């Protein structure tokens, strides 16, 4: 296997160039990608960042193509990010409102897939609460499918946008120490990030109370900590995960205030990380639950930049999947 | 009078450990003679079958079969299950009470027996241990037995309340009836959909810990030892469960345990990319567990092997893994899949045949599983070495949810007889 290239390609001024060759029809998970493919997608995302920072952000690359966003779980942010990405590429974007459609009235996932497929879309972006649901749908449609999160399994564009953000600050991924803290067991963000960072030779740490650590996580993470202070020592990147109060309360953690005391990221704990550490969060944040508002807004925080990178990564992924050379 | 002679057979009788070349005479549906070597004298006009050295054994007895009748006939009827059974060499089956309505009253036991009369396999009803399978009140064991129930079983359900299972054990003793119970602690396995461990974590699926089985099993075994009940752990899936059973059987001969062909043949890696046909209860475990289960079958700790035949319609399976129904069909592939551990030298053929015939027959007290003179001529003729491929299109069950789709098998049922009548003959 080729040595992963982690230096970002120099963005060409004005012209964004063409997307990298890609052997996959879908983007279902980071587990399907190798380091060369990951690097190529990140490099191309850099060009999309340039495009997005121009006064005229419109590209014509997906003109006439149809993108359907099918979100079985509500997510304003991710859906908006995919929608904006599609529009910047001139695609016709349709958002399927699952709650008000027949899908929530007992129509099966397979029937939904058949119905949407008949509308001749070019790409379907899917989020679903069940692990494997996006893969199941991808087998039943003739177009490209992008996984926008399936249960606790994968969220590949999130891992790519996180990697892009890290790379822009640290100029590399290999050799960095990345600490991911929160409900690892129920987090697709954690899984996709651990797989990607592992592929790119970063050192990964997971930090969580034992009730939030899934069995066998040591296969994905370099080190496992239940003591946050230990886990943060010398970390180059601190990635916080959102705590789902409803799910966690009383079962996984006794209370929010106890969680914040031991696993919330405040300035004191952050001081244990490397002096130039960056703080990340996939959003939406629970200020005062997993993160101190002061930390969320401090100079080390790159949380808003993650949102910007999200649009760029999704533009790059869609252009890559739909480019003539790759279809 | 009808007569049938099967000659040049390898007679294997798990009831007596007999294994020799010989012939068998059937008259009026009953085995009237078995002889080593040449065929015994047969009446004129007797039908003759040359077994050409193939194995002739008692028909299989399957103690864990789910059908959809009554209530969900689109999944499986008693008739379609019996046809699948015949093709799999299964001549007797105990059907589980998880129907709609639940088989928990004498009238419903009668209903099953009435419906099942003329089908190509013998059907015996198990009645629910608790009313409506709700785990609260025990059913009318005496009246149910009189109506023809052969065992009390809670089907897919498990009784959470220890006082209820204890009462059932004590009360069942009055009637000498076996209790078949699946140990499962729902509070530990609640959100789980596959074996707990690294494979589940990688797939983002929640795990069912082994303790969800071993903790209620330990409870059941202690209560069974205390009450002297004829307790049968419906199916076990972990190495520790096998140890628990082994320990209890040393002091208590009324305790027994079963295993499904799936837990014996497959492990969690077979699930692959969310293959819902492999979503089962108990879940497929680690390979170490599977090997411990095979060892437990070999040393007699596990005495009964069954198909856990559980037909599910495609709609219930073509779903995301966590939302798909549990269960797999298995009547037609039971024997062939079981022969894998014979062919690889792990377990002797006779041991496997015992677990498929005489042992289950003894548990529910039916006349089956033996080649003794006077036994019903429920027989299976087996070509141990015949290679074949499991094809979805050739499945007789109404459902298609097999864990062995596309599997290469060695060993096939050639003919099946119930009461001396041919109910299945391999066309290939």
Question: Could you explain the architecture of this structure?
Answer:
The complex is a heterodimer of chains A (327) and B (428). Chain A has 327 residues and is an alpha/beta fold. Chain A has helices at 35-52, 76-88, 109-118, 133-138, 156-170, 188-199, 228-232, 245-248, 256-263, 267-270, 293-296, 303-322; strands spanning 66-71, 92-97, 123-128, 144-150, 177-181, 203-207, 223-225, 237-240, 278-280. Chain A contains twelve helices and nine strands. Chain B is an alpha/beta fold and 428 residues long. Helices cover 29% and strands 24% of the residues of chain B. In chain B, the strands form three sheets. In chain B, strands 1, 2, 3, 4, 5, 16, 17 and 18 form an eight-stranded mixed beta sheet that branches. In chain B, α8 (239-251) links the parallel β13 (231-233) and β14. In chain B, α4 (162-173) runs parallel beside α7 (211-227) and α8 (239-251) packs parallel to α10. The two termini of chain B are 31 Å apart. The mean pLDDT of chain B is 96. The interface between A and B is medium-sized, with 25 and 21 residues.
Top keywords for this entry?
heterodimer, A: 327 residues, alpha/beta, 5-stranded parallel β-sheet, 12 helices, 9 strands, 36% helix, 14% strand, B: 428 residues, Urease, subunit C, domain 1, TIM Barrel, 8-stranded mixed β-sheet, 8-stranded parallel β-sheet, globular
Q: How many runs of DSSP E, i.e. beta strands of chain A?
A: 9
- Mean residue pLDDT of chain B: 96
Class from secondary-structure proportions of chain A: alpha/beta
Distance between the termini of chain A: 24 Å
Instruction: Give helix % range of chain B.
Output: 25-40%
How would you characterize the largest beta sheet of chain A? 5 strands, parallel
Just give the CATH class of the largest domain in chain B.
Alpha Beta
Greatest interface by residues involved: A-B, 25 and 21 residues
Which consecutive residue ranges of chain B, at least 5 long each, have pLDDT under 50? none
Q: Tell me the helix content of chain A.
A: 25-40%
Number of strands of chain B: 18
Low-confidence stretches of chain A: 1-14
The secondary structure category of chain B is alpha/beta
């Amino acid at each position: 296997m080729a040595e992963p290239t982690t230096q970002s390609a120099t963005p060409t001024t004005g012209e964004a160039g063409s997307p990298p060759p890609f052997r996959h029809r879908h983007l279902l998970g980071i587990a399907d990608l190798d380091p060369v493919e990951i690097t190529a997608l990140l490099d191309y995302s850099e060009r999309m960042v340039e495009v997005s920072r121009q006064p005229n952000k419109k590209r014509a690359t997906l003109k006439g193509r149809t993108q359907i966003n099918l979100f079985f779980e509500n997510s304003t942010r991710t859906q908006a990010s995919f929608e904006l990405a599609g529009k910047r590429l001139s695609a016709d974007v349709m958002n399927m409102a699952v709650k008000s459609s027949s899908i929530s009235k007992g129509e099966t996932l397979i029937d939904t897939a058949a119905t949407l497929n008949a509308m001749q879309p070019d790409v379907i972006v899917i989020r679903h609460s069940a692990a494997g649901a996006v893969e199941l749908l991808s087998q039943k449609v003739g177009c490209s499918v992008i996984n926008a999160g399936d249960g606790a399994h994968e969220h590949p564009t999130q891992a790519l946008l996180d990697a892009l953000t890290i790379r822009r600050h640290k100029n590399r991924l290999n050799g960095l120490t990345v600490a991911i803290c929160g409900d690892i067991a129920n987090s697709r963000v954690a899984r996709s990030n651990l797989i990607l960072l592992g592929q790119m030779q970063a050192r990964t740490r997971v930090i969580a109370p034992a009730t939030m650590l899934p069995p066998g996580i040591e296969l994905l993470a370099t080190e496992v900590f239940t003591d946050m202070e230990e886990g943060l020592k010398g970390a180059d990147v601190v990635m916080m995960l959102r705590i789902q109060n409803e799910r966690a309360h009383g079962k996984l953690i006794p209370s929010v205030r106890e969680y914040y005391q031991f696993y919330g990221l405040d300035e004191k704990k952050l001081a244990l990380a490397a002096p130039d550490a960056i703080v990340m969060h996939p959003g939406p944040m629970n200020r005062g639950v997993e993160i101190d508002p002061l930390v969320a807004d401090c100079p080390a925080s790159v949380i808003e930049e993650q949102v910007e990178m999200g649009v760029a990564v999704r533009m790059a992924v869609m252009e890559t999947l739909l480019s003539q050379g790759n279809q | 009078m009808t007569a049938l002679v099967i000659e040049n057979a390898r007679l294997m009788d798990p009831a007596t450990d007999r294994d020799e070349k010989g012939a068998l005479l059937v008259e009026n549906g009953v085995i009237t003679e078995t002889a080593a070597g040449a065929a015994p004298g047969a009446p004129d006009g007797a039908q003759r079958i040359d077994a050409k050295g193939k194995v002739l054994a008692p028909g299989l007895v399957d103690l864990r079969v789910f059908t959809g009748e009554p209530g969900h006939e689109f999944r499986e009827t008693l008739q379609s299950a019996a046809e699948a059974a015949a093709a799999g060499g299964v001549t007797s089956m105990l059907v589980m009470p998880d129907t709609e309505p639940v088989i928990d009253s004498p009238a419903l036991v009668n209903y099953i027996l009435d419906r099942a009369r003329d089908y190509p396999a013998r059907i015996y009803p198990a009645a629910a241990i608790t009313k409506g399978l709700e785990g609260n009140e025990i059913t009318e064991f005496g009246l149910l037995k009189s109506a023809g129930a052969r065992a009390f079983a809670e089907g897919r359900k498990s009784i959470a309340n220890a006082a209820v299972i204890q009462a059932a054990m004590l009360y069942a003793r009055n009637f000498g009836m076996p209790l078949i119970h699946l140990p499962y602690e729902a509070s530990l396995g609640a959100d789980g959909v596959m074996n707990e461990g690294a494979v589940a974590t990688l797939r983002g699926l929640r795990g069912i810990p082994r303790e969800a089985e071993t903790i209620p099993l330990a409870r059941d075994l202690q209560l069974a030892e205390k009450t002297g009940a004829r307790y049968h752990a419906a199916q076990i899936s972990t190495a520790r469960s096998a140890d628990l059973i082994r320990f209890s059987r040393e002091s208590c001969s009324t305790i027994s345990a079963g295993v499904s062909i799936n837990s014996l043949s497959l492990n969690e890696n077979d699930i692959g990319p969310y293959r819902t046909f492999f979503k089962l209860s108990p879940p497929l475990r680690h390979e170490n567990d599977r090997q411990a289960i095979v060892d437990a079958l070999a040393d007699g700790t596990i005495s009964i092997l069954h198909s856990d035949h559980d037909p599910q319609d495609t709609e219930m399976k073509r779903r995301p893994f966590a939302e798909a129904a549990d269960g797999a069909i298995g009547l037609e592939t039971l024997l062939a899949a079981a022969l894998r551990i014979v062919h690889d030298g792990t377990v002797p053929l006779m041991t496997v045949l015992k677990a498929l015939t005489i042992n289950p027959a003894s548990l529910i007290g039916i006349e089956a599983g033996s080649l003794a003179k006077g036994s019903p001529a429920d027989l299976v003729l087996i070509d141990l070495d015949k290679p074949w491929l499991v094809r979805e299109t050739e499945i007789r069950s109404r459902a298609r949810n097999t864990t062995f789709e596309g599997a290469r098998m060695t060993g096939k049922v050639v003919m099946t007889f119930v009461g001396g009548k041919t109910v299945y003959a391999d066309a290939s």
